[in-house]
Structure formats: structure tokens, C-alpha cells
YkgJ family cysteine cluster protein (Cohnella thailandensis), 90 residues
Amino acid sequence: MECRTGCAACCIVISISSPIPGMPEGKPAGVRCVQLTDDNRCRLFGKPERPAVCGSLAASIEMCGSADEDAFRILGELEKATAPESGHDR
């Protein structure tokens, strides 16, 4: 499966603990990555400064579903299920 151009669910919904240029502490869940363009394309795609974790994500039907809305829902559920307990609801 190929990524859907302009979806960017993985660049918005999930948390990324690795430093990202412009986000040295990583990216919290639900926060739009600063490297996304207005049309939801990664400015770092194919560049060496792109975090390894971003490059390791691979689109799949299980993660992305069949539409952008599916990806936001599925990734949101996965993020919630794997987030460390913080003592309060997210």
C-alpha cells in the first residue's frame, strides 16, 4: 500500500519521541508536525534529517484503512492504547 498524498494522519495523530527539525523535543500526539506543508506534504521526505521513525512507518490497510478518516481514527485508537498512563484521561 502507498501513502495517500495529503493524508498526514501519521504526522498529526501519533506522538513522535525523536527530535524533529523544528521540534527538538519530538511531537506530542494530536499536534501537527512543523515539517508539514499547507497541503500536508513532508518537507523532510527523502532527506537525511528526516527522523528514522518517520521513515520506518509504512502505510498498511491495518494502520491507514481505506480513507484518510479511517487513518485518523485507527491511529488515534493506537496512540491511546499505547500511550503511557498519565493519571488522567486524554
Notes: The radius of gyration is 13 Å. Helices lie at 52-56, 61-64, 68-82. The first helix runs from residue 52 to 56. Residues 12 and 32 are 4 Å apart (CA to CA).
